[in-house]
Amino acid sequence: DVSPSNLMGYHLGGRFISVLNDFDLALIKKFLSLNKNSPRGFERTGTVPFMSLHLLVPKAIAGQVEHMYYHDAESFIWVLTWICLRYDKGELLRRNRPLDEWLTVDARGCHKEKMSYL
Questions:
Q1: Among candidates 42, 44, 57, 52, which has minimal Cα distance to 73?
Q2: Residue 116: partners with Cβ closer than 8 Å, 6 or more residues away
Q3: What is the number of helices (H) and of strands (E) in the chain?
Q4: How crowded is the C-beta side of 72, counted as CA atoms within 13 Å?
Q5: Are 40 and 29 in contact (CB under 8 A)?
Q6: What is the DSSP letter of 1?
Q7: Backbone phi, then psi, for 90, in 5-degree steps?
């Protein structure tokens, strides 16, 4: 999944360059078949508040849903929402931060919180 700690940015030559850095479980797919114990894409890893809604349901939590590229795309949207609502003029809000409840619940609870947000 994408999370705020995976996003980096810097200024270079008058431009702002941003980078997504999330290689924690990066593997070459063709080599997966060589090892029976290697990840298959059904493992649940990630930061719950930013995970795709599809990965926060019981079937996915049980490892029965394959992680797909569109889950990461949705994760990016959740991170963008998080950043836009919790910062004001580049500063983290100190009180009454929106979405704090996403940090205090498990995967099913986070799914419920996100659905009520939508």
A1: 52
A2: none
A3: 3, 4
A4: 13
A5: no
A6: -
A7: 85, 0
d(CA 54, CA 77): 14
pTM: 0.77
Please, are residues 39 and 32 in contact by the beta-carbon 8 Å criterion? yes
Reading the block at residue 107, the tokens are 């995967």
What tokens appear for 86 in the block? 């919790």
Over residues 4-23, mean pLDDT: 88
Among all chains, which residue has been given the structure tokens 């995967």? 107
Three-class DSSP category at 5: helix
Tell me the two tokens of residue 27. Answer: 């593997």
Q: Do residues 48 and 99 lie in contact, with contact meaning Cβ atoms separated by under 8 Å?
A: no
- In angstroms, the CA 17 to CA 46 distance is 25
The pLDDT tens digits for 85-97 are: 999 998 999 988 9
Rounded CA-CA distance 20/69 in Å is 14
Position of tokens 């998080």? 82
